[in-house]
């Protein structure tokens, strides 16, 4: 399920896709020089070793069972590692309602020009996200560009207070029956109130309304308890390796 959902997201970008034993994802194209790969086991080693010298930017997720592939990336200083957990939710019909606190209101984020004009400006949502996670490695402009570049299958949401200030965000992407969650952030002063869980549930409820039946995502250590409470199961521990154009 996780591999299928990963490939569905990559196919939506209309880039060359690789799908072979142990190695899945989107390859560099004329329009986009980075890659997005999932490595599930060491059968991917030989092909990965061939690809890496030609790549200047990208994101590679490697399941912990692929010991040789992890060692291969670990020997390359330009690829920065981050521990993560691959997770799945088998039935979004069991997702609870969002349950935001009374002083917060759920609103859509205006990500694309065709989005409703009364949505929260993307710049406001991005500014709060960078404040919530200053170690993300991206500045506000970079993050906004990345979010705008995502396929139209993605929708972003914000929780705003009575003054209209963004206090939390979440997003979902729907690819046929599969959904994924992105952009989950909570303002530091609003944490430990269940808001992150409520925003994730709201995004997944929206994904279900759009036709998704199940969901897959990569969880940080901070997000892992939230996703477990919402019914997600662990597929594998993994390491995400990132390389940017300037690194």
**Cα shape:** globular
Biggest sheet, spatial arrangement of strands:
1-2-3-4-12-5-11-10-9-8-6-7
- Ends distance: 33 Å
By DSSP, the count of extended strands is 12
Quaternary state reads single chain
Structural class: alpha+beta
Whole-number radius of gyration?
Answer: 18 Å
Tell me the series of helices and strands, N- to C-terminal.
HEEEHEHEEEHHEEEHEHE
Share of residues in helices: 25-40%
Which runs of at least 5 residues are low in confidence (pLDDT < 50)? Answer: none
Largest β-sheet summary: 12 strands, mixed
Give the integer mean of the pLDDT values. Answer: 91
Summarize the structure.
The chain is α+β, with helices and mostly antiparallel strands and 247 residues long. 28% of the residues lie in helices and 32% in strands.
């Amino acid at each position: 399920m996780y591999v299928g959902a990963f490939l569905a997201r990559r196919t939506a970008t209309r880039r060359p896709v690789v799908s072979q034993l142990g190695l899945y994802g989107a390859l560099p194209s004329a329009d986009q020089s980075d890659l997005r790969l999932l490595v599930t086991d060491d059968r991917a080693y030989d092909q990965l070793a061939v690809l890496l010298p030609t790549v200047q930017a990208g994101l590679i997720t490697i399941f912990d069972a692929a010991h040789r592939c992890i060692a291969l990336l670990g020997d390359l200083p330009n690829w920065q590692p981050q521990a993560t957990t691959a997770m799945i939710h088998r039935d979004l019909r069991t997702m609870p309602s969002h349950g935001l606190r009374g002083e917060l209101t759920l609103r859509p984020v205006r990500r694309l020009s065709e989005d409703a004009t009364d949505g929260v400006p993307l710049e406001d949502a991005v500014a709060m996200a960078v404040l919530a996670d200053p170690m993300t490695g991206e500045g506000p402009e970079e993050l906004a560009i990345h979010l705008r570049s995502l396929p139209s299958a993605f929708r972003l949401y914000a929780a705003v207070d009575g003054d209209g200030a963004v206090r939390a965000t979440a997003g979902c992407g729907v690819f046929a029956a599969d959904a994924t969650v992105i952009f989950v952030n909570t303002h530091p002063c609003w944490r430990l109130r269940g808001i992150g869980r409520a925003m994730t549930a709201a995004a997944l409820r929206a994904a279900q309304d759009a036709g998704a039946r199940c969901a897959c995502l990569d969880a940080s250590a901070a997000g892992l308890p939230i996703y477990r409470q919402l019914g997600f199961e662990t597929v594998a521990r993994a390491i995400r390796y990132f390389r940017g154009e300037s690194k």
